[in-house]
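Saturday, quiet lab. Running sequence design on the C-alpha cells for the scaffold JK sent over.
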C-alpha cells in the first residue's frame, strides 16, 4: 500500500482551542494565521499594492459611510465553531465597539471585504465558504489584478447563491445600508 492510499483523519481545531493557543503564546500575536474549516492557515505577507489599496479603501468607506458603520481593518472574527478568519476590512453596526468580542453577533456585521492581489483563489475558495458557513450576509472581494469587485450575497450555509461582478463605473449599496451608494471605481483606483 502506498502512502497516498492512507486515509489520514484530520482533527479540526475549534475557535475556542485556537483562542486558547493564542492566549498561551503557542501562536505568536504577530504571526499571520487564521482558522479556516478547523485548520490553521498561514496568511501571506501584506504586499505594497495591498497595503496602499487597504488604506485608500478604508478611508473611502469611512468617508462614505460616516456614522452608519464602523470600519475595521484586519479583525479576527469567530464565525462558526471551526472558522475564525481575518478579513481585510469589516463593516460593523455602530455600537459594536462597545461590546466584548464574545458578545457580538451576526446582526452586528454589515459586510466584509477581502483585497486580492495574490490571494484570489483563497479568497474566492476557502474564505468564501467560511464566510457563507458563518452566515455573512455580504462579502466583497476587491480583485486588484482583475480590476473588478465580486459581491457575494445570500449565504445558504455552504456557499453564496448570488455573485455579482462589478467594474469601474458601477455602483452598489450594502443591503444593510441601502441609501449609501458606493462607487466601484473608488475601490479600484491605482490597481
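Result came back. Writing it out in full:
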Amino acid at each position: 500500500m502506498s502512502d497516498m492510499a492512507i486515509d489520514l483523519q484530520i482533527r479540526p481545531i475549534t475557535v475556542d482551542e485556537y483562542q486558547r493557543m493564542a492566549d498561551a503564546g503557542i501562536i505568536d500575536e504577530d504571526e499571520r494565521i487564521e482558522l479556516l474549516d478547523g485548520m490553521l492557515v498561514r496568511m501571506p505577507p501584506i504586499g505594497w499594492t495591498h497595503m496602499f489599496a487597504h488604506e485608500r479603501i478604508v478611508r473611502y468607506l469611512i468617508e462614505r459611510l460616516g456614522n452608519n458603520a464602523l470600519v475595521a481593518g484586519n479583525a479576527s472574527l469567530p464565525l462558526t465553531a471551526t472558522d475564525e478568519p481575518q478579513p481585510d476590512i469589516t463593516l460593523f453596526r455602530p455600537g459594536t465597539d462597545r461590546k466584548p468580542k464574545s458578545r457580538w453577533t451576526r446582526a452586528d456585521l454589515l459586510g466584509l471585504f477581502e483585497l486580492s492581489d495574490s490571494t484570489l483563489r483563497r479568497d474566492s475558495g476557502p474564505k468564501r465558504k467560511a464566510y457563507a458557513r458563518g452566515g455573512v450576509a455580504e462579502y466583497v472581494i476587491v480583485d486588484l489584478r482583475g480590476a473588478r469587485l465580486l459581491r457575494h450575497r445570500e449565504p445558504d450555509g455552504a456557499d453564496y447563491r448570488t455573485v455579482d461582478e462589478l467594474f469601474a463605473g458601477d455602483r452598489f449599496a450594502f443591503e444593510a445600508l441601502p441609501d449609501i451608494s458606493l462607487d466601484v471605481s473608488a475601490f479600484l483606483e491605482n490597481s
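Notes for JK: The first strand starts at residue 33 and ends at 36. The CA atoms of residues 140 and 151 lie 4 Å apart. Ask whether to fix the surface positions before the next round.
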